[in-house]
Amino acid sequence: MASGSVGPLAGPAKGHAASLYLLFYYAGSSITGSVGGWFWQHGGWSSIVALTGALSLLGLFLALRSAR
Questions:
Q1: Of 32, 5, 19, 9, which is closest to residue 40 (Cα–Cα)?
Q2: DSSP 1-68
Q3: I need a surface site. Which of 1, 7, 53, 55 has the fewest CB within 10 A?
Q4: 28-46 CB burial, b ≥16 within 10 A, e <16
Q5: Terminal Cα distance for the chain, rounded
Q6: Band (3; pLDDT cuts 50, 70, 90)
Q7: 13-27, pLDDT tens digit by residue?
Q8: What is the dihedral of CA 62, 64, 66, 68, to 10 degrees?
Q9: Measuring CA to CA, which residue among 30, 48, 49, 31 is closest to residue 39?
Q10: Residue 56 to residue 24: CA distance in whole angstroms
Q11: Secondary structure of 33-52 in HEC code, one letter for each residue
């Protein structure tokens, strides 16, 4: 749903907005995957759960903050 809403919200710069969305999507995925591997090596599943919870709380905080 997020990638589908980029175009209508971008106005005349749809190509730039879509490319920036994909850049940050894949960069975030790569960084989170690498960081997750480090957490896995040093703490196992409990560390992965903590990382996932922290990222979820960060996402919720940013969503609520942008809704104001």
A1: 32
A2: -HHHHHHHHHTT-HHHHHHHHHHHHHHHHHHHHHHHHHHHHHHTHHHHHHHHHHHHHHHHHHHHHHH-
A3: 1
A4: eeeeeeeeeeebeeeeeee
A5: 21
A6: confident
A7: 888 888 998 999 999
A8: -150
A9: 48
A10: 17
A11: HHHHHHHHHHHCHHHHHHHH
pLDDT above 90 for 52: yes
Q: Quick one: tokens of 8?
A: 């209508």
Q: Output the pTM of the full model.
A: 0.72
Under 8 Å between Cβ of 17 and 9: yes
